[in-house]
Amino acid sequence: MMVLGQTSQLVDWDWIGRNIDQIADRTWQHLSLTAVSVGIGLVISLALAIVALRWRWSYTPITWVTGLLYTIPSLALFALLVPVVGLNATNAVIALTSYTLLIIIRNLVAGIDSVPDAVLEAADGMGYTRRARFWRMEVPLALPVIIAGLRIATVTTVGLVTVTAVLGLGGYGYFILRGLNTFFWTQILVGVVLSVALATVLDIGFLVMQRALSPWARRAR
Amino acid sequence: MAGDPMIRLENVKKVFPGSSRAAVTDLSLDIGRGECVTLIGPSGCGKTTTLKMINRIIEPTSGRIEIDGRDAMAIPAHELRRSIGYVIQQIGLFPHRTIAQNIGTVPALVGWDQARIDERVAELVEIVGLDAEMMARYPSELSGGQQQRAGVARALAADPPVLLMDEPFGAVDPIVRKRLQHEFHDLQGRLGKTVVFVTHDVDEAILLGDRMAILNIGGIIEQYDIPEKILAEPASDFVERFLGGERGLKRLALLPINEADLEHGPFVDVSTTPAEAHRVMEQHGVDWLGLLDDERLLGWVDGDLVDSKPLRDLDPRPFLVTLDTESTLRSALDAVVTSHARVAVVVDDGIYRGMLDLESIAEGITE
Q1: Of A129, A216, A220, the CB nearest to B78
Q2: How far apart, in whole angstroms, are the C-alpha atoms of residue A107 and residue A48?
Q3: What is the CATH number of the domain that holds A134?
Q4: Residue B141 contacts A, CB cutoff 8 Å
Q5: From the list B79, B86, B140, which residue is nearest A125 (CB)?
Q6: Positions of E strands within A93-218
Q7: By residue range, what is the domain housing residue A167?
Q8: pLDDT tens profile A37-48
């Protein structure tokens, strides 16, 4: 636009063509940061949810702590972690993971709680052990709610990954930050559009997975 | 060992945590092999608690429960339960499994191979009166009545000797409930399971129970006997009040027609002369005549018509309600009050067997 030395058109297709390799690299970075964070988040959440389901009193403190983590502004959390782990991917993953916990745990517990008592009693009456009942009745029946939680956590994380640009990472966020610094609109737009597209693709992916894994819930409507 | 009970409860007590009163205070109950015992009583009488202690869905506080001579507490609960069929009011079909998978639950748990499970499931679907096409459906795609049929099939799957049923037909509409009750009655007659059946419906308890146990608050057995006996001789005011009105009618429903009580009545062969016909009507004090053709029941005619033409040429009117030899005195009574002639006519394969009137029904109940 009015910036020196830059083309005045909104999208510089040549720039995109020249930087296609870098866009691919950033796509991979964005995806892997998201996947690793949500993956670790799921594992930690599962452990905490099992604790919460086993000892009900622990659910309140668990949501309280993860809720507190959730309220810390992301930029601040990255900064707070710098003295501890440094300015690197570990820092990003710790922070991103901590944001997924509240969402995933809540949906895990809500999903398991949504299994009707009659189903549990029938399962007991048929002779399921506690463990078999959990994995073969409660978890499959909770799956639609659990996957809904993973969907929200994933979409949220895709957005937050862009902020890790301040750590020198950022996935598509790198383009946005660079673009802002140089007032280069093409770069900003590439970062924004691709990160929204990625979130949308993952969102739809989870929806498809949820439907595929719970055909019984779909036919029930 | 045939005389040993299949299920024996000995001084069983249950106090729920945080409750000062025992839900079941001190209950002892023997249930015979192949017997269907209905547990009935007001809410809070501990009937459901009692039932659920048998498969340890609820663990007794103290006392002893034996199933087929074995101490139920000495077996791991999940193993005990695999040998006991269990049907609950809310059915509790597994929503994420097809009807076939639901029915095959226990066989799969105890490790039958798939071919044997499939064969058994197909057999059960037939037994409980479901369509084979239901097998591939999910529970939410079935009506309440169909779901409960599937629930019964699931409980029967591994052919357990004992069946526990907790108000299984309580949630379906009255018409379907009646049908399910009668079907289950027939089924039980064929399968001969030992059944403990909890209900709050007196008629259901009477219909299905070989014996019924009437429980008062705290699991106190007020009376434990065959329904006929309980209806005829309620052991206490509580039982009498609990059985409610129409005790006589309920008893009639249990009593089959006794062929010895049948009278021939004013029924004559179509070859009878008018004079003889008049004599028969006079003898019975009626103004109508039942017509038979070589023992086959044709119907009845008005007394005034007897002289108009030979009996063979009259146009007899049919009895609207006829009974067969399997009918109960209650349906006989119903036939009496709805028929023109005030009699219940018993017919076996078209052959006239005799009739009952109000008086002979009343005699039947006092025997």
Answers
A1: A129
A2: 12
A3: 1.10.3720.10
A4: yes
A5: B86
A6: none
A7: 7-220
A8: 999 999 999 999
